[in-house]
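Pilot study result, target chain (178 residues):
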Amino acid sequence: LSSLLSLLSSLFSPLSSSLWLLLALILLTFAQANNQGPLAWGALPLNLPWRIGPLALLPLLPAVNLMRQWRSQAWTWGDWRVSTALVVLTAVSIPAILHTQQWASAISLALCWLIYLSLVNVPRDKAIRPLFWLLCLVILIQGSVGIAQFIYQHDLGLTWFGEPALNPQQPGISVVYH
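Predicted structure:
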């Protein structure tokens, strides 16, 4: 019980706030209009190619702590070679994103920047541990759903949780589309 409490306290510490911001950006990249999962619950019906519900924005709340903390610490852009490569990638990508209006690509580009800057500025020993357990939980849940889908060869009826309807007549590998 004490290890569970320490895990929960580390997940909501100011140093792991950047990880929550990363989680929010990852969730927003999968906010498609046809997704019926909890990330789209309560979304405004705006007839847009994405639906973002309040639950998808929830990880942004702890990220405010990180922004306050970053103001008080010395900021670094990291190795100039990596930063320059990311600037070039951003400069090449932005005109294409604006032309095609693929906003999920813009969020993915912001996610790439945030991952890099978080790895450079957040102490590794305190940032990696909560991320490791969070990724283990995600892998365990998604793996269990994927194994059950493979065994039963159909969806599990979790459309309310964002699971797409799987068609066994469709050729290919039995995987969740996201």
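One observation from the pilot: The chain has one domain: 2-161. A full batch analysis is planned for the follow-on phase.
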